[in-house]
Amino acid sequence: MSSIHLTESGDIKASVAVLSFIFSSAAKHDVDSESLSSELQQLGLPKEHTTGLCKSYEDKHSALQDKLRETSLRLGHLEAVSWRVDYTLSSSELREVDEPVIQLKLQAKGAESGSTETTVVSVSSKKFRVLLTELKQAQAMMNALQ
């Protein structure tokens, strides 16, 4: 593999994907440019190519690590919560109608897609109290970690 000739669009895309994977993996594991150069040469890449690639890697190493930290473990976030309490006075479908039902409407923005998704959940008042208690406990634990 003394000379690299990329003639097709698929070859170019594959090469870019491989280089992206190699650089992001090297930055993720904090590999120095000398070790990266040695590994690339062992894979068959000519020294003159590894020298140029590793110089670029060394120049942008910290910026690449910052970008990886920024984009890893991204979670969606809750944008809005609305609720209402429904109390059915009578129903042909239910035997007992003496308990209120809480309807929660959650709007969350996805981390990857960026689109907002709406979810509606109906729970009994007992289950809502349990949910609220557990959410308060989780919030206390998260606050203790800060």
Automatic annotation (TrEMBL):
PANTHER family: COMM DOMAIN-CONTAINING PROTEIN 4 (PTHR16231:SF4), COMM DOMAIN-CONTAINING PROTEIN 4-8 FAMILY MEMBER (PTHR16231)
COMM domain span: 77-146
Species per Swiss-Prot/TrEMBL record: Scomber scombrus
Protein name: COMM domain-containing protein 4
PROSITE patterns membership: COMM
